[in-house]
Records
---
Amino acid sequence: MNRVIFCEEIVEPPTESLAIRGLCIYLNAFGRKSEILLETQKIHRDLYFKWTKHTGLWDFIEEIVYPEYEIRGLRISCQKVKSPYIKTDRMKINRRKFVGSLGLSLALPNLECFAGAKQNIKRFAAVYVPNGINMHHWTPNNYGDLIDIPNILSPMQDHLDHTQIISGLTHDKARANGDGAGDHARACSTFLTGTQAHKHESKIRSGKSVDQYLADKYNGTTRFDSLQFSGSKARIIGKCDSGYSCAYQYNLSWKSASQPMASMHDPKDIFNRLFNVEKLEQKKKLQKKSILDFVLEESRELSNKIPASDKAKLDEYMYSIREVEKELDRRDEFNLSNNFEFNFDIENKADKFRLIYDLIHLAFLTDTTRVITFLTAHDGYNGPYKDIGVSEGHHSLSHHQKDPEKLAALAKIDLFNVRLFSEFVDKMKKDNLLQNTNIIYGAGISDGNRHNHDELPCMLIGGNNKGKHFRVEKEKPMCDLFVSLLHKHNIDSLHFGDSEGELNVV
């Protein structure tokens, strides 16, 4: 057994506890059984005893000893270093080994005590909205600084310092190019691939999507290389839009030209998968406890094994999970969760979208993945938005023929989608995740009435954006934007889809 002695010279109590806590975590997590002693003068013994109890350190410390005892062991005195205490960044903890040592079922946030926690972890997300956008209420009137933003973008007012609007981008490969009708299928399949979809019911061929290039980049660094979410159940087989396979219309993410990445659409399933709670579900039903209750029961040690600076972060994280779980349980109680698949049209979309956005936020917060796509609904989706008083189908409204009432209804839907997205951005910002995350929000069609694939709506959030509105030259490929984003993630790609090079505004 090793013996580690912390000398009294550390600091007068109540001092910073990270030194002792950090070393104890390190020793325990890696199976190095050690006897931890605190050495102090007799006159300070009671003071130090109260301090260790207050900070939770007494669970680590076997005894307080006096210098005259001449106990042999590794003596640590902070007088030997410049700072008044040993900083925990000198002894980072391996995240996987630490979690494994506690036997946790639940994913943990990226706490400061974990090795690499302070590194600039880069993330990517793409959010897609169907059927185009009412561009009159989307496009800012001025270029340069985002000052007077239009109505649809108004929920982003508090996030303008992280927002870029890019006008004029084109997806040429989403056009017919001799293949006839099928703009909705092509809009989805081309959005992140930049390639022309092969028009066939079963012989699918698209292209590898930008998110999957990033997934390959971060392969093995997180539990999931990438995650794909959708607002409704995906259809993979069969014929959908004008002879195109349903795979095109219901998927944003493509592992290869012939392999779409299936999306999860039920928040309950997403929750269970993200947080390893499948095995706890039965116990939960039998004992009528929260999953979080079981997790807390099996990880009582955790609170005493992390620095004080991480405790608040962990508490907030647990609260967030509890809120998501409570909402899912409430929906179970009213038998709504089973209807996600079949009755999406009559769902409270706001609640469902918030849940999915919350789960995206938690997935990033826990570093469960660094790459996520969210197809809010497949292109051509014709469900109503009864939450906001829109009873006519979305696709039908998109063929507005410049009817003012239909355009107004479309603007309400667009505002609804941006408002929910803004709430997600706010949570990312509060957890300091936004700076190193690139989020694309947009559509593969601009004016749903014309089914055009130029002048596409594109909002870029996060990174080093400075609150700007840019206009690019006519027919500028959207794939140029993807090349620029790949470069930001240190992927040296000079060509992607129909790209012509980098987009200098990013």
---
Amino acid sequence: MESLRTILFSVFCFGMAITLKAERVDMLKSGAKADGKTLNTTLINHTVDRLSQAGGGTLFFPAGTYLTGAIRLKSNITLELEAGATLLFSDNFDDYLPFMEVRHEGVMMKSFSPLISAMDAENITIKGEGTLDGQGKAWWTEFFRIYVDLEKNGMRELNKYQPLWERENDVEALYAETNEDWHGTLKRRFFRPPFIQPVRCRRVRIEGVKIINSPFWTINPAFCDNITVHGVTINNPSKNPKGPNTDGINPTSCSNVRISDCFISVGDDCITIKSGRDADGRKYGKPCQNLTITNCIMLSGHGGVVIGSEMSGGVKRVAISNCVFDGTDAGIRLKASRGRGGVVEDIRVDNIVMKNIGRNAFIFDLFYDKLSKPEPVSERTPVFRNIHLSNITGSDVKQIGYIKGIEEMPINELSFSNINMEAEKGFNVETATNIRFFNVDFAVSEGPSLTFRESSGITLEGVRSKKPIPGQAVIEVDKAENVQINNCFQIQSVKDFFRVTGK
């Protein structure tokens, strides 16, 4: 019995020792200045290093404004922000030097440190009710300055960081491993940092915080496993001023990702799933897979949920559900082009409400590079297949959308079930196979509700329009094969429900 007590006491003490390692540091009491003017970078990173060496811990920021440069997180570290606390990131670009390894738009390179980074770490948390402010305007202004000058004057050195980028990277290899449509981006030689980018990390959690004014993509884990983003608000302005390319949440080549209960309004796509660009992405060959996106609200942004265009490593097994898109340019958008490669498959979209969609509710586009030419099927050929959408409503939509495959690789196995949309224009399908519409009501004010061109294996069941246009067919088919029409009954009569042209 005494021996058992000894063992239990030892276990208890060991547990206490482990618990004691998880120190919680009040950064204000530790010397941080909450005046929004004094740079706290050194203190923050020294505290991260000390806690990590001791087994982990929490940096707690009470209410106040803490100016900082790049923060580099390590294993078992938590950043916690009290309500009223703001981490205000410096707008001095020097505070994000030296350059470090990042994945920028799907390409591995050396560039500015992310505002918050981590490399090869685990158990990282950013949480609380406070705010992360990236002060992105300085970065956006410099981006536009370089962009305009490049268009007008060619490739000039406009700042000290452009030659530094050339020295730090194998520029010739970057040009060789990316398609021509990205070479204009390379010519800028100035790459804004993402706000939060863990690389090759496990068990990363971001919860509760508000993130504003990101210089570039906001939450951008790369090559990570087990990512949770929950209850986060992201607000990057879409105009006056516009935050260019300020995507909300962009996992790239990550596995087991959960995004839930987020509120996103940004200057580009709200949520985008990626896996690398062109040959560089295929070289790493790591797909983005096993993702759930649920209970999110998207306002301003180019797209609500987007896959691509950087998807050279593939995207697999994605479930999107119970989301609202109100004011985005597009709703669900998948985009790629010849030369990119990668397979996008096993995608489910369910229970979505859309309103005030500025362009297209649905986009499935393998012709993102409009100038590309047909080429033999190879690892450069992108693939979209086995994608299913159901229980979606939309109103005040510019166009319901389009499917556009490439002749050597038609988009294959898409289904639309229980879809009710009101829009100015309908849905166009071009170069696709095995496309099915079940219980679909597309009401438009201009042109046909559904158009099919150069496609095959089309099934229409319970398709209708509650607002048919006099003298306009609801469905038009041009150069299509193997079309099945079942139980398509109009409540309001129309002279021509189905019109066929071509072969």
---
Amino acid sequence: MKKFFAMILAALTVTALAACSGTPAAEKPQGREAVTLPNYVQETTQIEQFIAQGSDATGAQLDGIVRSPYYDVTVDGVQMPVYAVPVTYGGPHSFTMLDCSEDQFPMQVELSPSYTVTNAQVLPEKLGVSARVESGKVTFTVNGYGNFTVIFNGDYPKAYTLFVREYEVPEVPKGYQLIEYQAGIHFVDSISLESNTVLYLHSGALLVAKQPTVESETPTLSTDWAGMTRWKSFISAEYAENVTIAGHGMIDLTNLNWHARSPISIVNCQQVSISGICIINAPEWNITVTLSSNVTVRDVIIFGYRQNSDGIAMVDTQHALIEDCFIRSGDDLFEVKSMYSDSPSGGNDIVYRNCVAWADKCRAFGIIQETKNDMSNILFEDCAVLFRLATWSEELGSLIVLVGDGGHISDVTFRNVEIFQDATYAVNVSLGPTDWSEGDAVGSIQNILFENVSIRNNRNIRLRGVGGAPDYITFRNVTVDGSKVTALDQFNVTRIQSVGEHITVE
């Protein structure tokens, strides 16, 4: 692939950069069209080496994405492109991205595996989609938009996901600048966005991040906590407003050194929209929104395996909606944090809705660790945890409220959430110092609601209070393996020191 990389570099598609007088939203196409990546993405003859990439938590790799070696897929008899990326456990993860209009439903999907499959299951379970296995082929019906993950032979290795999404077309308001990347391969250093800018990645655009050097760019840090040189983010906006990142293109950061760049960083911005893009193999945090407000992140796909490749983090941010996203990555996935002591608020009015998490290494949804300032009115709703596999710490779990600094955390709700499999704790509420705490301040946790939560294969929850007691925690209509929990002792509860008196099960 490296030789092919060099061959096509000369044929790089020129990026259009223009100040626009205003482009109205085009009508969305009718029919269906698979997202097809450039021929740069080829089959691999080194599948075992490709799979092994997922176990290298820090290294840059040979290949970031290949044609899947495991599945042929058709939708209503039409062949679909199937791609694969390395993941930490049981990889690679194969997937197809399909754009379509509503008149295309229902659609019949058929997978032909290259290995023996005896049974298959479509997740999340809330989709209500049943898979059939006949004559070695897997079939199921799709009746609407969503992320359909298929696991085979009762376990997660060689998983496949079909992403069925509505067409996205660019809308450029009058007076805005448009930066667009057409379908094809693009080798890019970094992109800085100013106010009133739309960055649009057309379907089939593949942006490959180039490794910076001290000769080409000044580092932001010559040595970070891990001893790595760090440069500005691949896509960044600071002190800007009205910033849009959109389109069904892909960003590949495989060739970057560990910690070299984060994919997307938004700092001190207002009115921000991020939608549609797919990010693979980030060397550190994927999408970080810091000290900002009025933010929407929608329909984003993230795959990764490297250490510290957090998913979507709202940090000291207000008024944010994150919905319809899928993440399988190498750290915490859907998270709210407060990391800046001088922030007026740690975060409030934040909603994660209809998101799907596959957490190989850390946590799935919640308030996670850095909690220097107060946070309130946080909602995780209509979400699903497919697998959460790590066991390396007691501070892990699917639904998390982890307060290790001095912030006061209140009014956090987890509603209509399903957890298919968790290796440690389905729920983990922890107050008190941890290995990541800064200083001795102990905050508080109160008014935490777990409502309409469905848990499979795990009764374990953890309640911890050191230096304080989490209190006013409610479990309402929580089921384990289909049976409603009516008393706290029906869970396998791990209690660490002090817990408040108002822990109720309804």
---
Amino acid sequence: MSGRVIVAGAGCGDYDLITMRGYEALKSCDVVIYDSLIDSRLLDFCKDGAEKICVGKRAGRHSSTQEEINTLLVEKAAEGGVVLRLKGGDPFVFGRGGEEVLALQAAGIPYEVVSGVSSAVAVPAAAGIPATHRRLARSFHVITGHTAADGAETLTEQIDTLAKLEGTLVFLMGLHHLEEIINGLLQGGKPADTPAAVISEGTTPKQRVVRAKLCNLAAETRKANLAAPAVIVIGETAEMQLSGIIKYPLYGVKIGVTGTKSITKKLRNRLEELGAAVTELDYATLVPDWENEALEQALQGITAYTWAVFTSPNGVEIFFQALQKRRIDIRTLAQLRFAVIGTGTAAALEKRGIYPAFLPETYDVESLAKGLCGVVDADEKILILRAAQGSPVLTEILAKEKKQYTDVKLYDIAIDAEKRRFAKEMDFITFASGSGVRGFFAQGGTMPQGTTAVCIGTSTAKTLASYGDFPALTAQTFNVDGIIEVILEEASKTKATEKETDK
């Protein structure tokens, strides 16, 4: 029995412009076949095990032909389950969704269509340009900006008609043919002083807008060096300024984030709420060592330990998962006192109903180690539970003070090479751990000139310093909030300096 296909629009730009029905389709699908222009964060909503297939083209990378996509949809549906064809914008607005539906009809595959928010209206709106406005534009027309690339009717054959249309003209995918479009409209009789605009990367924090008279639009767009995707708006409404007046403190600030899925997601969401343009530079995956012999021995002899030490929230979570996998009653930990490196790790422990007996005043490995030496007696045993890449400073100090300890490597951190992004023109790059720093550089990461690193704590800052003399800031509070506070403070200083310079 064949499956079914959902042809859905992802909306344009930011991930949260997808419809609720599209969102529910993402959560339930077994296979998602998607275009490159969609926001990659949408894929995080897929259920575990869902197959993800990219068929789009961007920045010169190979893309599947439409015929190949049609065949793929039929083949995947024939395997059973739910196949989601996720397209940018709306699937029926220059999205070739109709061709895909015809292929499904021919193959007898059940399908449904879920509309998406089209860039034709959403992008101009984000720039404060209404598609229609009383007394200015009673209609709008959406036109492809592509010229006869595939043998279809060319734009220039229609240009006379387009030039005489009343209302607002909206061109999609036309940035590379901007001059052709403008010249054709002018030759067709469109007044040279007609208001016009180009909106690049609309609805995202990277959005940029150029407004000009039609005759000057191409020159002004070149001067601004706008990038695709872009929407071109021509008509009286293009000179309107109806964009939101809420001022975001990090608007226009470019930030790269590194780390595990949980911390990059938290950072990205918080920073984008403040207006920043955020790029996930790498995607670190926790790899628990469930068959760890050292852990097994430690758990079998857990009553011999008086202290358990955690250096990250991840360590807390994986340790308690290990207890569950082995069906070890949490009451066997009753004799243990817990030490943690910082408030984030303490919070992870407190979720389990356990409150740490020791938390250093300064949230770094050195302070943790020295503090432990002051509270742990010579006859007591310490169980350290942390990442394989944990700092040697902790055990070096404990050994020097002749403290008894067992250092258990709970998990490793791997960088997903397929999700690597290289930093370009970043104002800040965040690092949430020393292992994250090492993974970043091990995978070929570099610090662009003019970029400031923001480290979650002093240990992370020390690890970064071992790779070079980079401009760096360290959070005063060693958690996500601390990282954001540092960025906000530094960004406000930069903006204040720019204002002084402009005077």
